[in-house]
Design goal:
It is a single chain. By secondary structure, this protein is an alpha/beta fold. The protein is 27% helix and 22% strand. The protein contains seven helices and ten strands. It has an eight-stranded mixed β-sheet with strand order 6-5-4-3-7-8-10-9, with helices on both faces. Strands 1-2 form a two-stranded antiparallel ribbon. Strand 9 and strand 10 form a beta hairpin. Helix 5 runs parallel beside helix 7.
Length: 260
């Protein structure tokens, strides 16, 4: 019997079926879009590294925020071992709140979060309430405005009107209690302003005006390529490091300051 000829191979699929840009439903488009969305979600998710909330994850708004990386936070809180429990802290450019939340998780007595973006401040307040955290204040205000206001922000909270500061207190922190009976002094201050904002020199100088407890620690974060601003008299640098695009320093107010 004569052999049957093999059927010819099917023609290659049209370009559209292989996922070309012109395809109305390109192959792989769902996977690609899903992967992108997943990366976006991961970029807006952080976790607590240590303390009572260790391993707990939280999300923060898709705003112009640049949270301190996990690796840097872990290094910082290793430096601060023995100084967190019972400390009164100021997270001056709070953003996602990662630094202040880490401090609360590790036993800080109080954290005052200052964040100028309303969406970020509201999200942080909701998170603190959801976690049933105590000893916190969230102030929606610019850092310079907050520092210039000094005790008036807390006085407004006691009077029941917060003006433009939009200050909210958390359970366990009544009025100014937990922050030295007024606007400071703080044992630990986190300074992590937006890169290139030029905020650091003014913030460092303002902290000398009654905000720091004697021997208070100040954490400073800035773009790696930028120099650390000149420090106030009698301040000292204790530690320093770099990670990626971030330069970070732990300072001490050697002589300290007292509230006026």
């Amino acid at each position: 019997m004569p052999r049957r000829r093999a059927s010819p191979a099917p023609p290659p699929a049209p370009a559209a079926a292989r996922g070309s840009a012109g395809s109305p439903n390109p192959v792989g488009s769902t996977v690609s879009a899903g992967s992108h969305r997943t990366r976006g979600r991961e970029e807006r998710r952080l976790r607590i590294i240590g303390g009572q909330w260790r391993g707990r994850k939280f999300r923060f708004p898709a705003l112009s925020l640049r949270p301190t990386p996990d690796r840097v936070r872990e290094t910082l809180f290793n430096w601060l071992q023995g100084r967190i429990v019972g400390a009164h802290c100021l997270d001056l450019y709070a953003g996602s709140g990662a630094l202040g939340l880490e401090a609360l998780s590790r036993g800080a007595a109080s954290v005052t979060f200052v964040e100028q973006q309303r969406g970020a401040a509201d999200a942080l307040e909701r998170l603190l309430r959801d976690w049933q955290a105590g000893g916190w204040i969230v102030a929606c205000a610019q850092a310079r405005t907050f520092l210039a206001a000094r005790g008036s922000v807390y006085a407004a909270a006691r009077a029941g009107h917060t003006g433009g500061a939009a200050l909210t207190t958390g359970a366990g922190l009544t009025a100014a209690a937990g922050v030295g009976g007024g606007a400071g002094p703080f044992d630990l201050v986190f300074l992590d302003p937006p890169f290139g904002s030029g905020e650091l020199p003014a913030a460092l100088a303002a902290l000398e005006q009654g905000w720091l407890a004697p021997g208070g620690r100040i954490y400073v974060e800035h773009a790696r390529g930028e120099p650390l601003p000149a420090l106030p008299a009698q301040w000292q640098e204790l530690r320093a490091g770099t990670a990626g695009e971030v330069g970070y320093h732990l300072l001490v107010a050697a002589a300290g300051t007292t509230s006026e």
